[in-house]
Fold this sequence. Notes:
The chain is an all-alpha fold. The protein is built from seven helices and two strands.
Amino acid sequence: MKLGLKLLSAFAAVLLLTVGAALYGTWNLNRSLDTYATVVQTSNDSERAINEVSVTFKMQVQEWKNALLRGKDAALLDKHWQAFLKTEREVDEKVMSLVASLPEGESQALVEKFGAAHAVMGSRYRQGMDAFKAAGFDPTVGDHAVKGIDREPAALLLEAARQIAAGNSAIAAQAAASGRQAVTISIVLMLVACTASLLGVVHFSRTITRPLGAALDTVRAVAGGDLSVAVQADGHDEVADLMRALKGMQDGLATVVGNVRQNAHSVATASAQIAQGNQDLSQRTEQQASALEETAASMEQLGSTVRQNADNARQANQLALGASQVAIEGDRQPASVDACFHFRLQAEQACAGACSNFGAIRQAIRRGGTHRPVRATATLQPRKHPDGMARTRGRDPAHQPLAA
C-alpha cells in the first residue's frame, strides 16, 4: 500500500472513530432530551394538572362555604350554588383527563379514588344544601351535614400530587443520569478513539521510520565501505521502493568495486612486470655503462699503445738510420759488421713489437669493450757497448758479436 493511501486510510479511520463517538454521544443526548420532552414533560403536565384539580376542588369547597354564609340572600345563594356546581363539573372533567394522561400506577389509582370520593362528596353536598334550606338557611345545619366530607378527597388528591411529583423527580433524575451516561460514554468513546488513533499513528510511524532507519543504516554502511549489509525490501509502498533502489545501488557498487579490484590486480601485475623489466633494463644499462667504462679505459690504453708504437717506430727509424750509417762505415771498417748486425736485430725486434701491439689493438676493437687491458711491449732502450758501439736491452743471447 502506498504511503498516500496509508495516510488517507489512517486519517479516515481516525475521523470515523471520532465521528462515531460524537454521533453516539449526540444520539444519547437526543434520547435524554426526548425522554425529558416526553416523559418528564408529561409528568410535569400531570403535576400541574393535579395542582389545578386541587385548586379547583378548593374553589368548589369555598363556593359551598360562600353559599352557606350568604344563602339568606336568594340571589347570592343561587350565584354561589351555581359556581359550586360549575367547579364540581370542572373537577370531574380534570380528574377524568388526568386519569387518562397518567400512566398506570399508584398515582393513577389515587386520582381514581379521588374521583369516586368527589362524586360521593357531591351527593353529600346536595343533601347538605337541602338541609340548609330546610333549616331556614341556617349555616350550621348545612355545615354539620357535610362536616369533614372534603378531607378524604383532599388527602387523596394531595397524595396523588406527591406521587406524581416523586415520579416526576425520578424521571427527571433518570433523564439526567441518562444524559450524564451519554456524556460519559461519549467521552470514553472519544478517549478510545484518541487512544486508537494514537496507537495507529505510532504503528503507522513505525512502519515508515523503521524502514527509513534501515535505509539510513544501509547508506551509512555503504558510505563506510561495507557492501555486505543485508537490505530488506518488504511491501509495495514508497519506502519499499526506496529499499529496493538501495539494494540495486548496493549490488551495482559491489559489481563496480569487484571490477575495480580486478583491474587493480591486473594493474599491480603489470606494474610488477614493468618493475621487473625496469630492473632488467637497469641491470643491462649498468652492464652497458660498465662496458662503456671498460671501452673508454681500453681506448685510453689503445691511445697509449699507439703512442708507444709511434715511439717504437721512431726508434726503429733511428736504428735503421744508424744501421745505414754503420753499413756505410762498414765498407771502411770490417769490425763494423757486428754492429750492423746488432742494429738490424734491434730494428726487427722493434717492428715485431709494433706488429704485436697492432694485433692487440685489433682484438680489443673486435671485443667491443669486453677485452682486458692490453699491455704494451717493452720499449727498446739503446745502450752503449763496451767497445763503443750501440746495443739494445733484451737482445737474443744467441746472437753474439762476431770475432774480429
